[in-house]
Design goal:
Strand order of the largest sheet: 1-2-3-6-5-4
Number of strands: 6
Largest sheet: 6 strands, antiparallel
Distance between the termini: 102 Å
Length: 179
């Protein structure tokens, strides 16, 4: 950068609006708010961390978990510090007990202590358990769909049989009364 180039503007914290500071953790740059303790992690960094046990331990050490607290404004939707689009709030993974704010294009916002809790969850095998639960849920849905299809087929067959039976009765009665 030459003396005429301005440094890139610092992004604002989506919770409190103060400038985010840069920090390198497990070889990746994250943006952290020194006021509220929130952390913005890019998509690539988070994906790398989730697949690397050494990175998980380094992140866990850098961001100890503690008691998560609601922001003074309460649970609210926040905007991505990169694109300013409102992020989606969702549970990190089944069983994680941590709700994060996600911008699919740019990254995930973790409020204070949430990143540490997520890394504890991951290190304890939580993602594997969540994947197993999801596979079980999908298998249950597939079984239910097969049963529903079988019952629908049986109901159609039953209605078809009833219609044939009713037709026989009508023919018998017509023959009996001569009509």
């Amino acid at each position: 950068m030459t003396y005429r180039e301005a440094p890139p503007p610092r992004r604002a914290c989506p919770r409190c609006g103060l400038p985010l500071g840069d920090r390198v953790v497990a070889g990746d740059r994250v943006e952290e708010c020194t006021s509220c303790g929130g952390v913005f992690v890019g998509v690539a960094a988070l994906n790398r961390w989730l697949g690397d046990a050494a990175a998980q331990a380094a992140v866990r050490e850098a961001f100890p978990s503690g008691q998560t607290q609601l922001h003074p404004g309460g649970a609210m939707y926040v905007k991505c510090p990169v694109c300013a689009v409102v992020m989606n709030r969702r549970q990190f993974a089944a069983g994680a007990a941590v709700v994060v704010d996600v911008c699919r294009a740019h990254g995930t916002w973790f409020d204070a202590a949430e990143l540490g809790k997520v890394m504890e969850f991951v290190l304890a095998g939580g993602l594997d358990r969540a994947a197993a639960k999801e596979a079980e849920r999908r298998a249950d849905e597939e079984r239910a769909a097969r049963v529903k299809a079988a019952l629908a087929g049986a109901a159609f067959e039953q209605a078809e049989n009833r219609s044939r039976y009713e037709g026989r009765i009508v023919r018998f009665l017509r023959g009996l009364f001569g009509r």
